[in-house]
Amino acid sequence: MFGKIKKDIEAVKERDPAVKSKIEILLCYPGLHAVIIHRLSHWIYKKGLFTLARIISNLARFLTGIEIHPGAKIGEGVFIDHGMGVVVGETAEIGNNVTIYQGVTLGGTGKEVGKRHPTIGNNVVISSGAKVLGPFKVGDNSKIGAGSVVLKEIPENCTVVGIPGRIVVKDNIKIRKVHDGIDLDQVKLPDPINQELICMKNRIRRLEGYIEKLEGRDNDETL
Fold it and tell me: Which uninterrupted H or E stretch holds 210?
């Protein structure tokens, strides 16, 4: 447990440019506090003391604004930035070196039993307000854009945007692996709707030109 906490602290230091010292990290980062308390509540949960584990997780929610069910599994080097409003369900699994921003939900879609929350791979970035709902996997090295709603499995090395979430090819290049630095950019993401509108606009222009030729009009001639 202490080894994982050390990596959690290092993750904050590496990914937040506002950090001034490790003391600041320990005292002023609710995302780190929530993860540390979760590691304790998860250990108690695995011992079968479910009610005590839930009490501790509710205390963490009161103190940090972050709700992590004690049954959830969280890997090493997880960074919850700001974190207010983050919700992680009971059967959710989060891999190593994952970055989660405020307002993210890793939830279910109904009253299913068994596995009902998502599995997040390694080196994944989940941007502000994103909702990942259902018992599927988000592949390693993927990024989910702000406000996206993801309802189906995402392969590795993908960028997802929109409602519902759409997989967008990112320049045919894999998202960088963690040892090369995690891509935390939440703004410069492809917009598939805008791309479709541009394609439609270009096609309309070509059709207008074709009609003008059929009618024998010059391009600048008015109807």
Answer: helix 192-215
pLDDT above 90 coverage of the chain, percent: 47
For the stretch 182-216, pLDDT in tens is 665 555 666 666 666 777 888 888 888 888 788 77
What's the residue count for the chain?
A: 223
Q: Is 27 exposed, middle or buried (0-12, 13-18, 19+ CB in 10 A)?
A: exposed
Are the C-beta atoms of residues 122 and 140 closer than 8 Å to each other? yes
Q: In terms of Cα–Cα distance, which of 111, 117, 122 is closest to 177? A: 122
End-to-end CA distance of the chain: 76
pLDDT band at residue 178 using 50, 70 and 90 as cut-offs:
very low
Task: Say what the pLDDT of residue 159 is.
Answer: 87
> 184: which residues sit within 8 A by CB, 6+ positions away?
15, 99, 125
Q: Extract the runs of DSSP E, i.e. beta strands, from 54-177.
A: 67-68, 73-74, 79-80, 87-88, 93-94, 99-100, 105-107, 119-120, 125-126, 131-133, 137-138, 143-144, 149-150, 159-161, 166-168
Predicted confidence at residue 10, as pLDDT, reads: 87
Angle CA 8–13–17, to nearest 5: 140
